Amino acid sequence: MPALADNALLDHIATLKCQDMIKNNYFGHISPTYGSPLEMQQAFGVRARIIGAENIAGARNTSRAYFMLENSPEHLANILYNGLTDQGAAVVPYGVYGVYVCQEFIGN
Predict the structure, then answer these.
(1) Cα 69 from chain centroid?
(2) What's this model's pTM, rounded to 2 decimal places?
């Protein structure tokens, strides 16, 4: 399987998503600020054949967050879906709780 290309715009969106979850004290795919992952990506001008795929995790550290994502069938399906071509990711510290990790994906 080819590696996903890093996408600076998706990195930015992933960072904003993590910051939004911290600022608005929620953990979920639907943001009170940006709406769904699809709506958020569209609002930032993302254009691709497949948009709106997102993974989020909260854990004590980055290694644990990625372990959780890779051991979740639904999250792993996003990571391995052959229709996706680009990804962006962010890790944002969340005080004493650890980190939030967000991955945004598109397929061109």
Answers:
(1) 11
(2) 0.94
Distance of CA 55 to the CA centre of its chain: 4
pLDDT tens-place string over residues 28-85 = 999 999 999 999 999 999 999 999 999 999 999 999 999 999 999 999 998 899 999 9
Q: Which residue's structure tokens are 């939004």?
A: 20
Quick one: tokens of 81? Answer: 């879906």
CA distances from 101 to 1, 29, 48, 61, 87 (A): 23, 12, 23, 9, 13
- As a whole number of angstroms, the distance between CA 93 and CA 73 comes to 25
Tokens representing 31 are 């943001």
